[in-house]
C-alpha cells in the first residue's frame, strides 16, 4: 500500500515536471524562431525582391497596389533559416515599382 501511494506521488511529480519542461521548450523554440525571422527579414529591407524569393520561394499571394507597388505574402514559408513551429508564420513584403523591398512585416498566428 505504501509503495503504491509513493509511486502515485512520484508519478504525478514527474508528469508535472515533464509538462512544465515541454511548455518551456515551446516558449524557447518560439523565441528562437522569432529571432531567426527578424535576422532573416532584416536582410531583405532595401534589397531587390529576387533575394527574398530565392530564400523564401514563390509568394503565396501577390496583391497589386497603387503607383506600381505590390504586396507579397508568404504563409509559413519553408526556408532553411527559419525553424518550424506550431504557429503559422505570415511574412509580407511591400515592393515598389522598381522591385525594391520598401517594408518588411511578419506575424505569428
Which structural category do the helix and sheet elements fall into? Answer: alpha+beta
Would you tell me which CATH topology applies?
Beta-lactamase Inhibitory Protein, Chain:B, domain 1
- Number of helical regions: 2
Residues in β-strands, percent: 15-25%
From the alpha carbons, calculate the radius of gyration and give it in angstroms. Answer: 22 Å
Order of helices and strands: HHEEEE
Q: Order of strands across the widest beta sheet? A: 1-2-3-4
Q: Do you know the CATH architecture?
A: 2-Layer Sandwich
- What is the count of structural domains? 1
**Percent helix range:** 40-55%
Which SSEs are present, and which pair or pack?
Blueprint: H1 2-42, H2 49-56, E1 61-64, E2 70-75, E3 89-95, E4 101-108
Antiparallel strand pairs: 1-2, 2-3, 3-4
Q: Could you give a quick summary of the protein structure above?
A:
With 109 residues, the protein is an alpha+beta fold. The protein is built from 2 helices and 4 strands, in the order ααββββ.
Amino acid at each position: 500500500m505504501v509503495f503504491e501511494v509513493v509511486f502515485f506521488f512520484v508519478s504525478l511529480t514527474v508528469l508535472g515536471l515533464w509538462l512544465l519542461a515541454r511548455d518551456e521548450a515551446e516558449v524557447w523554440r518560439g523565441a528562437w524562431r522569432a529571432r531567426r525571422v527578424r535576422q532573416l527579414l532584416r536582410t531583405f529591407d532595401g534589397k531587390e525582391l529576387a533575394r527574398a524569393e530565392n530564400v523564401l520561394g514563390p509568394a503565396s499571394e501577390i496583391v497589386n497596389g497603387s503607383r506600381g507597388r505590390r504586396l507579397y505574402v508568404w504563409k509559413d514559408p519553408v526556408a532553411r533559416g527559419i525553424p518550424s513551429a506550431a504557429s503559422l508564420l505570415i511574412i509580407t513584403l511591400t515592393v515598389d515599382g522598381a522591385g525594391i523591398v520598401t517594408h518588411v512585416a511578419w506575424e505569428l498566428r
